[in-house]
C-alpha cells in the first residue's frame, strides 16, 4: 500500500510508475551487454548517452566507471522481482478486500434479518416460557414438600429402628440376668441341701446322749440362720422372676408398637413413592417443553455466531495478509542488524572461551597442588605416629631401668618420699610431657596415665634418682 503512494521523478500516474519500475532492470542490463559485445562503438565511449535529457550526465573521459559485479546485479534483479511480486500480490489483495467488503455487507443484511427473526421468536415464546416456569415452580415446591415429609418419615423410621435395637439389647440383658439368677438359685439350693444335711446330722447328734447342751444350742442357731438365708434367697428369686416377667411384657408391647409403626412407615413410603412418580412425570413434561424452546433459541444463536465467526475470520485473514506485507518490507533491515549482532556475539564468545580455558588450566594446577599437599600431610602424619611410638618405647625402657635400679640401697627404702629432693630437671620434663600429652591428639599407639591413680613412693624415689645417675 505504501509503495503505490510514492511519486516518480517525472510525476506520472501509478500505472506508469509500475511500468517504469518493471523496465528498470532491463535498462540497467542493456548498457552492460553493449559494452561487453562492442567496445569500439559510441556507447562504449560514452555510457551515459542513453540517459534522459533531463538528468545530468558525466563524460567517461573524466570519470572511470567500476566494473559491474554480476552477483550484485543478480541480487538487485531478484529484489526487483520480489518487489514486483509483492506489488502484484497487493493488487490481488485490494481486489480481495473489495470482494470481502461486498460479502461483509451481504452478511450484515443477513444478520439483521436473523436478529429480527430471533427477536420475534423470543417475543412469541415469552408467554409459553412464563407458563412453563410457573408450572415448574409449583412442581418444585410440591417436590420439596414431599422431600421434607420423606425426611421426617425416615427420621421416625430410624428412631423406631433404634428402639428395636434397644429392645434387643434389653432382651439380651434379660436373658443374661435369667441365667445369672438360675445359677444363684442353683447355688442356693445347693446351700439348702448342705444345710439340711447339716441339720440331719445335728438332729442325729442331739438324739445321742453324749452331746452337750452348748453344742446342741450352736447347731440349732446354725440351723435357724440357714433357714433364714434360704427364705431370703426364695424371696429374691421370686422378685427376680417378677421383674423378668415384667420385662418380657414390656418387650412384647414394644415389639407390637414397632410392628405398627413399621406398617405405617411402609404405607407412607408407598404414598410418597406414588406422589413422587406423578410429580416427576409432570416435571419431565415441563422440562421437555422447556428443552424444545431452548433448542430453538440455541439453533438461532448458533447460526448468528457462525456468521459472525466467518466475518471475523475474513477480517483476520485480511489483516494477516497486510501484516505479512509490512513484515516482508522490514526483513532486510532486521536481517542486517541481526547479522551484525551475531558477529559481535561471536567475538564475545571467543573472548569468553579463552577466559574459560585459562580458568580450567588454573583449576587443574590447583588440583595437582592440593593432591600433592594431601600426600605430604599423610606422610607427615605417618612420621608423627612413628615418632610417638618410638617415644612410648623409650619411656617403657626408662621405666624398666628405673624398676631395676629401685632396690639399690636400703636407705632409699626407709626414707620417706616427702623428704627426698626432686630435681628441677625431672619436674620440667614431666611438665613438658604432660603438656605434650594434653595438646597432641589421641593416637592408637600412645598410652595415657589415668589421673585418678598416683605413683607409689618407691617408683617416685626411683624416678627421682635415676636421672641423677644418668647425668652423672
UniProtKB/TrEMBL annotation:
Low complexity bias: where? 8-23, 452-472
Coiled-coil annotation: which residues? 90-117, 251-310
Q: Where is the composition biased (Basic and acidic residues)?
A: 214-235
The UniProt keyword set, sorted, is:
Coiled coil
Q: Where is this region: Disordered?
A: 1-46, 206-237, 403-472
Q: What organism does this protein naturally occur in? A: Phytophthora rubi
Q: Where is the composition biased (Polar residues)?
A: 403-415
User: Which protein are we looking at?
Assistant: Uncharacterized protein
Amino acid at each position: 500500500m505504501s509503495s503505490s503512494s510514492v511519486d516518480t521523478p517525472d510525476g506520472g500516474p501509478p500505472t506508469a510508475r509500475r511500468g517504469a519500475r518493471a523496465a528498470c532492470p532491463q535498462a540497467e542490463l542493456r548498457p552492460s551487454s553493449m559494452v561487453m559485445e562492442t567496445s569500439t562503438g559510441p556507447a562504449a565511449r560514452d555510457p551515459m548517452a542513453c540517459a534522459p535529457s533531463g538528468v545530468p550526465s558525466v563524460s567517461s573521459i573524466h570519470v572511470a566507471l567500476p566494473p559491474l559485479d554480476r552477483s550484485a546485479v543478480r541480487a538487485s534483479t531478484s529484489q526487483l522481482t520480489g518487489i514486483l511480486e509483492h506489488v502484484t500480490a497487493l493488487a490481488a489483495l485490494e481486489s480481495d478486500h473489495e470482494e470481502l467488503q461486498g460479502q461483509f455487507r451481504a452478511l450484515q443484511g443477513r444478520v439483521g434479518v436473523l436478529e429480527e427473526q430471533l427477536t420475534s421468536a423470543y417475543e412469541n415464546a415469552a408467554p409459553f416460557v412464563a407458563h412453563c416456569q410457573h408450572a415448574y415452580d409449583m412442581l418444585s415446591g410440591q417436590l420439596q414438600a414431599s422431600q421434607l415429609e420423606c425426611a421426617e418419615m425416615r427420621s421416625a423410621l430410624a428412631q423406631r429402628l433404634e428402639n428395636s435395637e434397644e429392645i434387643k439389647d434389653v432382651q439380651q440383658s434379660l436373658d443374661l440376668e435369667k441365667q445369672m439368677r438360675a445359677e444363684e438359685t442353683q447355688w442356693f439350693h445347693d446351700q439348702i441341701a448342705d444345710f439340711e444335711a447339716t441339720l440331719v446330722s445335728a438332729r442325729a447328734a442331739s438324739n445321742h446322749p453324749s452331746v452337750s447342751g452348748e453344742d446342741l444350742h450352736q447347731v440349732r442357731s446354725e440351723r435357724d440362720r440357714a433357714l433364714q438365708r434360704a427364705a431370703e434367697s426364695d424371696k429374691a428369686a421370686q422378685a427376680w422372676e417378677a421383674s423378668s416377667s415384667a420385662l418380657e411384657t414390656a418387650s412384647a408391647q414394644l415389639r407390637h408398637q414397632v410392628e405398627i409403626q413399621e406398617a405405617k412407615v411402609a404405607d407412607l413410603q408407598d404414598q410418597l413413592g406414588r406422589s413422587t412418580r406423578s410429580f416427576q412425570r409432570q416435571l419431565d413434561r415441563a422440562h421437555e417443553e422447556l428443552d424444545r424452546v431452548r433448542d430453538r433459541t440455541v439453533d438461532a444463536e448458533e447460526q448468528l455466531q457462525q456468521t459472525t465467526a466467518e466475518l471475523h475470520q475474513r477480517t483476520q485473514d485480511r489483516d494477516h495478509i497486510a501484516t505479512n506485507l509490512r513484515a516482508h518490507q522490514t526483513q532486510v533491515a532486521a536481517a542486517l542488524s541481526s547479522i551484525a549482532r551475531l558477529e559481535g556475539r561471536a567475538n564475545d564468545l571467543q573472548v569468553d572461551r579463552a577466559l574459560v580455558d585459562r580458568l580450567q588450566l588454573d583449576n587443574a594446577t590447583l588440583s595437582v597442588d592440593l593432591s600433592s599437599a594431601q600426600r605430604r600431610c599423610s606422610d607427615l602424619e605417618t612420621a608423627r605416629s612413628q615418632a610417638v611410638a618410638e617415644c612410648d618405647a623409650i619411656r617403657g625402657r626408662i621405666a624398666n631401668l628405673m624398676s631395676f635400679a629401685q632396690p639399690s640401697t636400703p636407705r632409699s627404702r626407709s626414707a620417706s618420699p616427702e623428704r627426698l629432693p626432686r630435681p628441677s630437671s625431672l619436674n620440667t620434663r614431666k611438665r613438658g610431657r604432660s603438656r605434650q600429652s594434653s595438646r597432641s591428639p589421641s593416637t592408637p599407639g600412645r598410652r595415657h596415665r589415668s589421673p585418678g591413680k598416683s605413683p607409689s613412693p618407691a617408683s617416685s624415689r626411683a624416678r627421682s634418682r635415676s636421672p641423677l645417675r644418668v647425668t652423672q
